């Protein structure tokens, strides 16, 4: 799986990237791809974006 970010994102914006895992979603800072990653259960991610 690959990391994705919003199509509204620009190179100047502070954005997050997401990666869908089996039962979770990983979230990271697009400007710091080697930095920390937050992993949340998929059900919580769906609630957030809903």
Would you mind describing this structure in some detail?
The chain has one domain (1-50). It has one helix spanning 42-49; strands at residues 16-20, 24-29, 38-41. Strands 1-2-3 form a 3-stranded antiparallel beta sheet. With 50 residues, the protein is of the alpha+beta class. It starts with 15 loop residues before the first strand and ends with a helix. The model has no long low-confidence stretch (mean pLDDT 89). The radius of gyration is 11 Å and the shape is globular.
Write the SSE topology.
Layout lengths: L15 E5 L3 E6 L8 E4 H8 L1
Antiparallel strand pairs: 1-2, 2-3
Protein name: DUF397 domain-containing protein
Pfam family, one: DUF397
Organism: Saccharothrix espanaensis (strain ATCC 51144 / DSM 44229 / JCM 9112 / NBRC 15066 / NRRL 15764)
Brief description of this entry?
The protein is α+β, with helices and mostly antiparallel strands.
- Identify the overall geometry: globular
Helix-strand makeup class: alpha+beta
Strand content: 25-35%
Largest sheet: 3 strands, antiparallel
How many domains? The number is: 1
Instruction: Enumerate how many helices there are, as a single number.
Output: 1
What is the CA-atom radius of gyration, in angstroms? Answer: 11 Å
Q: Which spans have pLDDT < 50 for at least 5 consecutive residues?
A: none
Q: Measure the end-to-end span.
A: 22 Å
What proportion of the residues is helical, as a percent range?
10-25%
